[in-house]
Amino acid sequence: MPKKQLPKFSKRKVSMTFLYRKILLNVAFIALSGMSASTYACEGVNEYPNWPAKDWEGGVPNHANAGDQLIYQGLLYQANWYTNSIPASDSSWSLINRCDDNASSTSSSSSYSSSSSSSSSSASANSSSSSHSSNSSSSSSGNTTVTIQENSTGFCGVDGSVDSNNTGYTGDGFANTDNASGKKIIWKINVASAGNYSLEWRYSNGSSNNRTGTITANGSQANVDFSTTGAWFSWTTSGTNVALQAGDNDIILSAATNDGLPNIDFFSVPGYDVSAAECSGSSSSSSSSSSSSSSSTGGFGNVCPAVGPCRILPFGDSITDGYGTPGGYRIELFEIAVEAGKSITFVGEKANGPSTVAGKPFPRNHQGHSGWTIESVAGKTGVITKLPSPALNDDPNIILLHIGTNDLKAMPSGMDQRLERLVDKILVEAPNALLVVASLVPSDKSSYPNSIIIDYNAKIPAMVKKKTDMGYKIIFVDQYNGFSIPTELADGLHPNEAGYARMANKWYSSVEQYLH
Ligand code: GCU
Ligand code: CA
Ligand code: CA
Q1: Where are the beta strands (DSSP E) in 85-171?
Q2: Which atom of ligand 1 is nearest to the CA of 206?
Q3: What is residue 442's DSSP assignment?
Q4: For 472, which of 19, 223, 351, 399 is 20 to 30 Å away at the CA?
């Protein structure tokens, strides 16, 4: 994917010959497209720090209002709301165009807020010889409005189908999710520079309800409303702004209500140096044929490296440390993997356990902290304080998280919310790793009430599912059911060897498909 540097465009430095060639090109372009020169995107727009708006009392212009545009460093920005910050310095601005002679004159004027644009048909709506290419950019230079149609580069999957039974679409049809919460469509785009971008969708919603989507792009999130268009053949646009990182970005639009998403004709992003990226089989489940189940990939694609051992971070408290049996579940987990011919290693700041297991040097690292809680509460330290460093220093591919037992005694109320915050932090800090969140093994010690474990455990699967639906690489593993009390506990709280072995088997089966 192109990762071009932002050219420092300065009109004053342009040579006359260059200018002449540009004029010729523009004349040709205008002649071809029938557009007038007045569509030049930045014409008449103030340049920072010449603010477009004054306070109501009057005085000097000192800010921009929602929708106002401003040029900054050769780029055109639009204010998302009242702002007096430097364009691109925060989320109050969206980058919408480039201010040179190649600037696109997109008819949409790039603003998503025009969501009431005419409901039917652009010129290229689905007449058979539609000129709407499946994945188009309005210019071959850096300034593009990338438009991604169904089943073309950058369209990575729909939880549902690509249909063509309702007219008015462009390209080959539209993406139709199943009508349920969490159903999603995924795209992948590449942007040269980090910043805020407008994301836009052309859609139809023939139901009478507003359908809301949650958009997730590398940890940033926003909601998008897709209000009714009155009929499935009536199309309009809606969108939102999100912060994107330089390089590839997964754009996940997920239904926030049980109605699913509206029908999506295409996804487009106006801006400088934006392009559709290869989906490359990474993130979550796509629509149809997804994994052809080779032994090295699972529902989340390649989690472990092609070469070398898969790096596993055992993360938690004394049960991860292996209290009572140094090495804990890690011993049996390593043994099972070796016997199955899978290559794994453990990473983390700490180390304990035997030196060899199954005839191989045992990787003794882990991130298990005896007595620690989820977050720091009631005078105890939370494992969250180990994020991102040192816990993630070795760039784990898989993170096994079993945490909360010490919260049972320290501060049971709110432990589920604390777990969710910890999970969120891991997902953001280690976006490429597969996070495996366990329910707690049972307790037979009254100061660590098992009834609270049962309550806490019951909340974990839904929390994990919420994250999976948002496109994160996260799964749940049930470490509670099947665990026998008291025979697999050493002291009423920590597993004995049999208990640790049971844990190892559960972990192993949850990640086996990713190991090789
Ligand atoms: C109708 C329509 C579909 C749409 C569905 C929905 O069946 O034809 O295209 O996806 O409603 O409610 O989502
Ligand atoms: Ca649908
Ligand atoms: Ca389409």
Answers
A1: 93-98, 135-136, 143-149, 155-158, 160-163
A2: 11
A3: P
A4: 351
Whether ligand 1 lies within 6 angstroms of the CB of 232 is answered as yes
Radius of gyration over alpha carbons of the chain, in Å? 27
Which of 97-111, 141-155, 263-277 has the highest average model confidence (pLDDT)? Answer: 263-277
Q: Phi then psi for 18, rounded to 5 degrees?
A: -60, -45
What's the pLDDT tens digit per position in 23-69? 333 333 333 332 222 246 788 899 988 999 988 777 888 999 988 99
Q: What is the DSSP string of 311-380?
A: EEEEEESHHHHTTTSTTHHHHHHHHHHHHTT--EEE-SSEE-S-SEETTEE---EEEE-TT-BSS-BTTB
Ligand 1 atom at minimum distance from 262 CA: 13
Strands 398-402 and 365-368: unpaired
**135-177 confidence digits (pLDDT tens):** 544 433 455 679 999 989 999 888 889 999 999 999 999 999 9
Task: Report which secondary-structure segment, H or E, holds 500.
Answer: helix 497-511
| Sole residue written with tokens 């897709």 | 226
Alpha-carbon span 154 to 301, nearest angstrom: 17
Answer whether 363 contacts ligand 1 (Cβ < 6 A): no
* Per-residue tokens: 295: 């032994």
Q: Which of 34-43, 339-348, 393-402 has the lowest mean pLDDT?
A: 34-43
Q: How far is the CA of 290 from the centre of ligand 3 (A)?
A: 21
- The pair of structure tokens assigned to 301 is 């694609």
Compare 116 and 325 and report the one with higher pLDDT.
Answer: 325
In this structure, are strands 263-272 and 195-204 parallel, antiparallel, or unpaired?
Answer: antiparallel
Separation of CA 263 and ligand 3 centre (Å): 9
Beta bridge partners of 437: 401, 476
pTM: 0.46
Q: Answer whether 213's CB lies under 8 Å from 180's CB.
A: no
CA of 176 to the centre of ligand 1 (A): 7
Ligand 1 pocket test target in 159, 169, 176 with most atoms within 8 Å of CB: 176
Rounded to the nearest angstrom, the gap between the alpha carbon of residue 95 and the centroid of all alpha carbons in its chain is: 20
Q: How far apart are CA 14 and CA 12, in angstroms?
A: 6
How many angstroms does the Cα of residue 112 sit away from the middle of ligand 1?
24
d(CA 226, CA 457): 35
